[in-house]
Amino acid sequence: MKIVILSQNPKLYSTSRLVEAGEKKGHEMLVVDHGKCDLVIEKKKPGLIYQGQEITGVSGVIPRIGASITFYGTAVVRQFEMMKVFTAVESQALVRSRDKLRSLQILSRAGLGLPKTVFSNYSRDVGTIIDNAGGAPVVIKLLEGTQGLGVVLADNRNSAESILEAFNGLKARVIVQEFIKEAKGADIRAFVIDGVVVGAMKRQGKEGEFRSNLHRGGSANIIELTDEEENAAIKAARVMGLGVAGVDMLQSARGPLILEVNSSPGLEGIEAATGKDIAGLMIKYVERHAE
Ligand SMILES: Nc1ncnc2c1ncn2[C@@H]1O[C@H](COP(=O)(O)OP(=O)(O)OP(=O)(O)O)[C@@H](O)[C@H]1O
Ligand SMILES: [Mg+2]
Ligand SMILES: [Mg+2]
């Protein structure tokens, strides 16, 4: 079948692995830069033009949409949906997953464990916000942050107040979160496909670092999840409506706490840590659902 990978860079590890895994199974793999697609909308005839050519005959789409191009990327995914093409990530779920506040609300309603989190539109009263998050130490996160940048640990009330005031001065939107000390600078990434955890790794921050991001010098190892962790990851992906998801959790004294659910989880770290062909499993997922 013809499978489209929506990606802005064919050289990225995840993109090239998906192409490789699809070709190995005999599929025609096409990398399409969603940023360079034109959408043609007319009565009952949705179309998509890429590099001067109309794209037709596609059975499945695997979106790999970067955070900076969510709006247009989602429109392209939606266009494929209009063309009745199966997509590994639905446009609605993609939009939902990119809104941290909305995601936390959905996860909380589903009864999943979360670090206590405060989001405020009126953030000048910094003391109240810190109190509502349970008091220092707290983790303060820039809403637009990624790869661990814009995530700060405030050990005490004074530093929490000055950090919040500094972010306010920059008109940056932040969330304030209870600091989970027992996580000891580590988190868990569970890779979920079609309601099954296909691989999991534990990421450990470098010495003296509470952030476990690999981009911040952390290291990753394969891990066996407890039943509780596995169930939490599966449920988180389900309530977010994601067929493919990277669920990030902290291990705490009160069980797993979900940090976030990624809709375009990277393949490099998880394939290296687990030694598994996750790209191949994603292709199988598309095969099962596409015509
Ligand atoms: N409330 C918390 N308590 C303890 N550690 C935390 C907490 N929140 C985050 N961390 C640590 O900091 C790391 C980075 O935080 P987070 O994943 O929220 O931000 P990010 O990676 O920048 O954002 P994104 O994953 O959306 O790109 C986490 O992987 C985790 O190790
Ligand atoms: Mg993260
Ligand atoms: Mg993330």
From TrEMBL:
Catalytic class of the enzyme: ligase
Cofactor requirement: Mg(2+); Mn(2+)
Keyword Manganese: yes
InterPro entries: ATP-grasp, ATP-grasp_RimK-type, ATP_grasp_subdomain_1, Rimk_N, Rp_bS6_RimK/Lys_biosynth_LsyX
Recorded GO CC terms: ribosome
Gene3D superfamilies named in the record: 3.40.50.20, ATP-grasp fold, A domain, ATP-grasp fold, B domain
PANTHER family to which the protein is assigned, alphabetical: RIBOSOMAL PROTEIN BS6--L-GLUTAMATE LIGASE, RIBOSOMAL PROTEIN S6 MODIFICATION PROTEIN
Protein name listed in UniProt: 30S ribosomal protein S6--L-glutamate ligase
PROSITE patterns: ATP_GRASP
